[in-house]
Amino acid sequence: MEKILKAAGVRWEISDLYDGAGDARMEEDLQLAVQKAEGFYAQFYGKIAADDLERATLLAAITQLEEIYGQVMRPEIYAFLAFSANTADDGGKALYAKCQELMARVQNRVLFFELEVQKIAPQKFVALFGETESDRYRHYLEGVRLLQPFTLSEKEEQVINKKDLAGKNAFVNFFDEYTASFTWEMAVDGETKILTGEEMRNLLRRPEPEVRASAKRAYDGRYGENAIIFCNVFNAVVKDHALEMEMRGYHSPIMPAHMRNRIDPEIVDTMMQVTTAHNSLAQEYYTLKAKLINMPKLRGCDLLAPVSRKREPVPFSEGRRLVLEAFNDFSPELAGFARQMFEKKWIDAEVRRHKRGGAYCHGALPGHHPYILMSYNDDIDQVYTLAHELGHAVHDFYAGRKQTLFNYHPPLVAAETASVFAEMLLTRKLLHEVQERELRLVILTGVLEDFFATIHTQNYYTRFEWEAHRAGAKERLSAEQLCDLWTQQRGAMYGDTVDFLPEQKWYWAAIPHFIHTRFYCYAYTFGALLVLSLFKRYEEEGHSFVPRYVRLLEAGGSQAPEDLTRQMGFDIRQPGFWEGGFAVMEKLLHELQALA
User: Fold this and answer.
1) What is residue 107's predicted lDDT score, i.e. its pLDDT?
2) How far is CA 104 from CA 164, 341, 569, in A?
3) What whole-number distance in Å separates Cα of residue 54 and Cα of residue 56?
């Protein structure tokens, strides 16, 4: 039985990139990218900012630059995937480090291009557009020019790129490798087992209260036991960010994230304020959940506790069926993209040691398919994770058929659109198929908890990160200070509806987004609330909505989020837009209350 559980043998096939770490083509591609970067410098240096710059010259430079990045990114993609699949492999670590080093070398040689784009006179810049081929890059180039006030000299930018290899990038790699090495010894079902992080997190969904408490104490406690390490890593990342903000002249630590997302700070502030104002919705739910699981009050280890013992294992094959059928009900074409991910072995779902924790979809190049990494634990919640990551993959496929590299990736706030929408498609299918009260309770609680985690929890994560960066720019933060900041923001969400275990004060150290990408988390809140509005529109319009949704995904990163949402009939500057998402959640909560 064990062999068919936990997605045993479901490993990705990445030989369509290279045959292995020793593939000679990888070294050839890396060196060719460096050579092309040198040729690019020789051909275009000083010509982009010239008064006589012509549209054809600019287009030639952009297309060559995309080719260069594609050349150097391909080996880096392979190295990253191999490192994620086995963080303990020294050869893989060395290869990934080499690829990162050569990427920095290429970036340093070609960064003059964006510096010169910033120097083009405004009237000249406008005159460079007006035909389809040049207009497709307008959004990208306008984004480059927005950074002009915060861009340093070419030499300073080169120094930063090199410094990052031994600075923040090294801390990211260390964090991933170190946390992936964690295992826990736990007594489960009368047997002592060695468990990975994913398996430990899965224990929080067990029906036995004592198992959940033991798992949560052990999991979060491990980060507390390593407080010296995680406190130093966190402080190093925060200080690095603060120094760069000072050098570049940003007036707040979150400002680069807003510019990266091409979104006005006022929109994000409105979204976060509306979300905080609806913390009472989460508190109402968790009060109800305590009654559903016959507890006077929830503990922090009970947030994911099952409301029913009717939680049959869901093998990977069954999860695949559910997701593909849910997608097919919406669009056979969309389901076809997802089906390829299974058939061509572009998913790594097996649970094993030294595999990077969490889940991701990696779609780096528009001319190449994405890959999915996750650890599938035979649970309905993992089916939702599978749907989420396949939603990302579908987004990559649609954007890839319309966009080139510089317009391919949507900003983070739009990047979660297809993934959360995919979860809603799965929910719709399950609620249509399941009539039994107890199973509907399981589905509704799962959906609501997912939205509270994606919207409210990520909101307080962002507030914690903001406070930590604000304070950490002035002084090194102690572990106690970080724990206090964490519990303050957590308390604002849950109020007095949940009693957290002492070990849970360390959970800030387990959040990889704080280390990988500054202020990533609010993108989840944005994406989930946007999807609730989109899905409401789909249920109103039916299949006539599908082509408009596909065009949204095909846009990739070619438009600003506000422009994309305006085309869908939404005004994200208005609090009422964000209120609409909570109205949908409130409706789901009322349905749950009626069942309960």
Assistant:
1) 96
2) 9, 31, 41
3) 5
Name the CA radius of gyration of the chain, rounded. 24
Query: What letter represents residue 519's amino acid?
Result: F
Which sign, positive or negative, has the C-alpha torsion 241, 243, 244, 248?
A: positive
Residue 419 vs residues 55, 104, 414, 527: alpha-carbon distances, Å: 37, 31, 10, 9
**Nearest CA to 511 among 254, 248, 120, 230?**
230
* Residue 335: both structure tokens together: 């389901």
Measuring CA to CA, which residue among 310, 305, 326 is closest to residue 445?
Answer: 305
Cα 533 to Cα 565: distance, rounded to the nearest angstrom:
10
4 has pLDDT over 80: no
- At 525-548, the pLDDT tens digits run 999 999 999 999 999 999 999 999
The closest of 363, 407, 402 to 559, measured between CA atoms, is 407
Domains along the chain with CATH numbers: 24-166 (1.20.140.70), 180-309+413-596 (1.10.1370.20)
DSSP assignment letter at 261: H
What is the rounded CA–CA span in Å between residue 444 and residue 426?
A: 12
b/e burial code for range 131-152 (CB count within 10 A of at least 16 → b): eeebebbbbbbebbbebeeebe
Separation CA 80–CA 211 (nearest Å): 35
Amino acid at 450: D
Rounded-to-integer distance, Cα 554 and Cα 232, Å = 41
473-481 contact pairs (CB < 8 A, 24+):
473/238, 473/239, 473/242, 473/245, 473/253, 476/235, 476/239, 477/231, 477/234, 477/235, 477/238, 478/231, 479/227, 479/228, 479/231
**H-run or E-run covering 309:** none
Q: How confident is the model over 53-66, as a mean pLDDT?
A: 96
Rounded CA gap, 263 and 253, in Å?
A: 15
Q: Torsion angle of alpha carbons 362, 366, 368, 372, nearest 10°?
A: 20
Angle between helix 437-451 and helix 575-595 axes, rounded to 10 deg: 150
Residue 2 pLDDT class (50, 70, 90 cuts): very low
Q: Please report, for residues 49, 145, 289, 475, 495, the alpha-carbon distance to residue 296 in angstroms, rounded to integers and kept in the order given.
A: 68, 57, 10, 41, 15
Q: CA-to-CA distance for 538 and 428, rounded, in angstroms?
A: 12
Regarding pTM above 0.85, the answer is yes
Tokens of 231: 């406190």
The pLDDT value given to residue 1? 34
CA neighbours within 13 Å on the CB side: how many for 88?
9
Q: Hey, what long-range contacts does 244-253 have (CB within 8 A, 24 or more apart)?
A: 244/160, 245/473, 247/152, 247/156, 248/150, 248/151, 248/152, 249/149, 249/150, 250/150, 253/466, 253/469, 253/470, 253/473, 253/518, 253/519
Residues 6+ apart with CB under 8 A from 581: 455, 528, 529, 530, 532, 533
Distance CA 135, CA 233 (A): 43
